[in-house]
Amino acid sequence: MSPVIIALFVLLGVGLLLALWLMGIYNGLVVAGNRFKNAFAQIDVQLKRRYELIPNLVEAVKGYMRHERETLDAVIKARNSAMAAEQKVAANPSDPAAMTELNQAEAQLGGTLGRLFALSEAYPDLKANQNMLSLQEELTATENKIGFARQAFNDAATNYNIRREVFPAATVAGMFGFKEAPLLETAGTERAATKVSFQ
Amino acid sequence: MATNFFQQQDSARRKTFQLVVYFVLAILILIALVYGLLLAFSMYDAREPVSWWQPELLLLAAPGVGLLVGGASAFKVAQLASGGQAVALMMGGEEVPGTTTDARQKRLLNVVEEMALAAGVPVPPVYVLEEPGINAFAAGYAPGDAVVAVSQGCLNYLTRDELQGVVAHEFSHILNGDMRLNIRLIGLIFGIMALSIIGRILMLTSRSSGRNDARGGLVLLGLGVFVLGLVGAFFGRLIMAAVSRQREYLADASAVQFTRNPDGIGGALKKIGGLAEGSRINNPQAAEAGHMFFANAFAGGGLAGLLATHPPLVERIRRLDPQFAGQFPEVRPVGVDREELEARRPGGLPPFAGMPRLPGLPQVPVPVLGFADEAVSRVGHVEPKEMTYAQALHDGMPDVLRVAAQEPFSAHALVYALLLDPRADLRDLQLTRLKAAAEPQDFAETLRLVAPVQALPDTHRLPLLDLAMPALRQMSPRQHRAFRAQVEVLMIADQRLSLFEYTLRCVLHRHLDAQFLPQRQTRPVHSSPQKLAHPMATVLALLAWEGQPEPEQAARAFDTGMRGYIGGDHIHRLPPREECSLAEFDAALQTLNQSAPAIKRRIVIACTACILANQQVTVREAELLRAICDTLDCPLPPLVVGEAE
């Protein structure tokens, strides 16, 4: 048997093992990627819940805050654009553009909601309104859940990002187009909502 | 059908042996083929007659094949080390959040939750596969890290009863201990099938490679490896078929037994026949996992009859419905009644005779049907009685708690609330510690849940924990670390480990830590029951004292248990109450866990016999038994089965 043939076989064996190794890395990236995409579903449910609550809130305060039309419109507008952004991210949580849009929309929504709550301080009747109180309570609970789920999502996304950046995986990630996972920023919303109290 | 959980486990071991034989055979044939290939090469190379026996070629072929198959298997096994979730994610499954608003997904979750409560295992995470066909699988190493996955087709086309049949079928795989074998098999099969994948790649690259002289060799090589791969794939299918086929009949029969409704699973099978997509799974990752599925995941071919991973559909249906004439129904998407989801929520607690209702009372006797033998035959089995009990348990859970159990943030606070002592002074101490250690919103959420949790009957505490398990598993590793630290803070705040705390820790350890921390695999090291008599006595002593405060009765219960274990006379005496501590109990239990399934069977018999010596089960006894069964990895349906006869 000629040395050429033997060399060919050794080369083949090394190639096979290399292929397997790459396959293992590839599958590991797929699993980590699916994990963080799945983690978004958890936030998604809570975000949707909050988008449902906001029109109710606006409805509840409308009667009292007649002179704050602009603020109320701004809240609804911010809520609608956040909702649109959330749907885009839900369709593909690894899309950085959609995530940026969601982060911005959420920050916007947090700001307007904060303004609404700040203004509502001036309406004593509103502070005593049972409906308003329970909505506020529910909103706070939802914010807490979003916060916890966001942390889990960001942890999963970070874990995936670290995985795809270390040396051999980085090559595989580059070859097969595993993109960096975008993080969900802590928008000011939940702090704004939890901070405002009616005591 | 008379088989039980432990026999199943033993027979799973025997099957493992059969499997090893097939596997070794596959490797030998692969080596022979590689040798032949090498020989052909050297003959082609030398252009003169060469002897067919070339030891140096064998030296090249044998380690080469061994390295490749072993390496590929090891890769796959390492990837699947984190258990069922890894399998589900690999197949592109999407986890259904407990808070889902999709009616079909909600129904699926309800069905799975009921089944888990009836089987006495934590609710497994539920995944949906984006596949139009009707199929499902369960995966994991043990009941504690199992996941259930169903295809979108199941949700679209199956009624609630049919879905329940499919889920029951998968639960029988979980309870029968098939899954560990299944998941290892994925690794082995991938090892021998890897060649076919690589052969395909080689042939493709040879087409584009430039150098002419090497090209011919590469094509020949690629072809050779591809043929080898086909042989590997053949054996892979053969192994899958061998382990899978007869177990499917068994799982079908178990599904009927669990649900008492042959139309459920029968209907689902008929719909597979009537659906154009059938039960096909399109995801290529399914190639080495065909044996895990509810029905054939691959399209039939010429060899399909011999290599089918599942028995023929018509045959499976006939065993459930002898009248079946082979006419498959036309399949249409089904809707979900909003009412169905809501009507199942009476809000109150189930009106069970003999159920303890007062919280905080440690010793509430509950009459129990049957004796030790019956109870043991129930390990890994679900009776319709338990299904109804579980449904009532599920529906009777107060809404605020059930909703809290569905979502990670509230669920982890729920566990804190469960750990709070009923006595006000101790509870205040625990709350102070928690306030200092936990995030403010965690603390607030815990406070919110304290009142409803404290009002919960003792019987509902463990099931509530089981319901919260999927949500708890969605925590990130970092969150889990913080959670674990808080749980420890709450447990040691009152300076003593209560029985419920101990059980809760066992359940959390077995089912949650398994996901986040690398687990040591326990291999059975003990196969002689006599050697384990001492730890057994330690376990039974505590169990006996928990069940009856009177020394005479306790001694009798202890004796009954020991006799059940040894199978005759024994020399052990019940130690005094003061000498039985949970710490020693725990150490003894860990020792017992290192025993073979046949011994575990005796252990569970002994414990049940001890508990049932006075014909009554207290909640504390039931909790201890759950801790025992969880540590030993044997699911035991709730012993509390309602009214006495």
- CA-to-CA gap between the ends of chain A? 91 Å
CATH C-level class of chain A: Mainly Alpha
Give the tally of structural domains of chain B. Answer: 3
Gyration radius of chain A, rounded: 24 Å
- Helix count of chain B? 26
Work out the helicity level of chain B: 55-70%
Which blocks of ≥5 consecutive residues of chain A have pLDDT under 50? 188-199
Largest sheet of chain A: none
The fraction of residues assigned to DSSP E strands of chain B is under 5%
Helical proportion of chain A? Answer: over 70%
Description:
The complex is a heterodimer of chains A (199) and B (645). With 199 residues, chain A is an all-alpha fold. Chain A has a single domain (3-195), classed as de novo design (two linked rop proteins) (Up-down Bundle). Chain A is 83% helix and 0% strand. Chain A contains 7 helices and no strands. Chain A is rod-shaped, with a radius of gyration of 24 Å. Chain A starts with a helix and ends with a helix. Residues 188-199 of chain A have low confidence and may be disordered. Chain B is mainly α and 645 residues long. Chain B has 3 domains: 5-84 and 179-320, no CATH class; 367-382 and 520-645, no CATH class; 397-497, no CATH class. Helix content of chain B is 63%, strand content 3%. Chain B has helices spanning 5-46, 55-79, 84-90, 103-119, 152-157, 160-175, 178-208, 212-259, 262-274, 304-307, 313-320, 338-343, 372-377, 384-396, 399-404, 408-419, 424-437, 440-454, 461-472, 477-493, 499-516, 533-547, 551-566, 582-592, 597-612, 619-631, and strands at residues 94-95, 126-129, 136-139, 147-151, 366-367, 616-617. In chain B, the strands form 2 sheets. In chain B, strands 1-2-4-3 form a 4-stranded mixed sheet. Chain B has a two-stranded antiparallel ribbon with strand order 5-6. In chain B, helix 22 (533-547) crosses helix 24. The longest helix of chain B has 48 residues, at 212-259. Chain B starts with a helix and ends in a 14-residue tail after the last helix. The model of chain B is unreliable at 343-374 and 640-645 (pLDDT under 50).
